[in-house]
Write a structure and sequence with these properties.
14 helices, 28% helix, alpha/beta, single chain
Amino acid sequence: MQASASIDGKVSVVIVGGGPVGLGLAVELGLRGVRCLLAEQRDGSISIPKMNMINARSMEFCRRWGVAEQVKAVGWPEDYRNNVLFVTAMTGHELARFEYPSYRDRGGLPYTPEGSRRCSQMLFDPMLIARAHALPGVELRYRTRLERFSDTGAGVIAVLRDMESGREIAIAADYLVGCDGAESTVRQALGIAMSGSPALSFNLNIFFVSESLRTMHDKGDSWVNWLYGPEGLWGNLVAVDGRRLWRLSLIGLPHDTDPARHDSAASVRRAIGRDFAFEIVSVLPWLRRQLVADRYRRGRVFIAGDAVHVMSPTGGLGMNTGLGDAVDLSWKLSAAVAGWAGESLLDTYESERRPVALDNVSQATSNFAKLRKVPVGPEIAADTPAGDALRAEARAFILGSDFDREYVQEGTVLGYAYDTSPTVCPDGTPRPARDSRHYEPTARPGHRAPHAWLASGRSTLDLFGDAFALLRFDGAVDGDALAAASRRRGVPLAVHDIADPVVAEIYERKLVLVRPDGHVAWRGDAPPSDVDTLINMIRGDSAGIRSL
């Protein structure tokens, strides 16, 4: 694409799109001292609650970013039970339920310093905006649209338009990242296609306020309520803040449904099963899809978040997968900007993250497909023997068909691995069996380095982020050679001595090298015979790949 020859500014990275993924990338880069500019054509305010769940891995990122405690404070009442219900209406018949405790009753978890938290994007985005604003080198420009860009081979020139003044400005950067959503202009400009199903269902989100809804039925607290009628699954009702904000999603409407003409108030009353006081704030049409981009990069331009994967919200994996993209890409861009990245390091962004997206998109679609298979019929809500029998059949199907995999998914959230990445050195141990529900900590190369509490009160995860971390569990083992090799290549590395046999048992080796994103790169009981080859491998130098 052609761009203006007159340059108005220079940064290391231009980020297009100011949703959670773009903001997360800006925060990550800012924490690494990388100068970046984020351009967002909206004004930054969020009036419609889309994302409503920050999973355990994303909460670990929030811990690094310094916003985890803020999420806990404002996101969701501590005493609100996180139950899942299947009903004909909130004042109607209950088909089935899955019981989950409140955050207060859940308490701490052994495998993470943070647990999943419900927090609407309406609350989450402002936290990330404030954090990004506080970082030197991060500039946020709202009401600013990307007009065009040009990859010169040596850099990228992005032409942005100030939507208030109409003025165009040209920004020179080393790299550009499109975090601009499912209809990404960056992806389209790159000519990158998406594969999968473009239309699983057409839906309407009705955002409304009710002060009384929480207590006006006999079902108790729940965060989501799946709604079934004679036609099958027709909607779900989500508690947005656990207090007074609610979102009703109407599922599987005709594609020509006009939100302005649809009787949204009648749909809300049907979901509850009676008339009550409420105020509709907004109605948003959206399309449920199952798509993954064929590529994540062309030259110096990358795409992340919904720009590369669009999935059903069943499972709450969309935004969280995007934050994983941002964390993976950030340290690699930082390495490239700083000059210590090997020539193939940036390529591993796609090879590591695309398989995760394919798995998560598939799981989200599978979750949705099961919801539509619940047996129903004309009498599903009737107070008749036939209605009782039909509801019993539905209950048996729900409780016997692996439905809770959508709600208990720590294996999916924490158990993904980059063990086939060329920047990870295998140690010969087999990949453990993966259970989407349950996470088993492992320090096998490629996997997320396990959490354990240290004597200082910090988590092992608090040691990761700014540099490679060499964990030494035996002070008699030499770590100096690895540290010296990293210095020769300009690779940042910090050595941490941990004299705790419990933590050492979790990590299983005397030396464990952890990447800046918290994934294990290598481990052993002694340094490798060729430390320079190992350092070359982890920084993406193809000369060092798989040669240890």
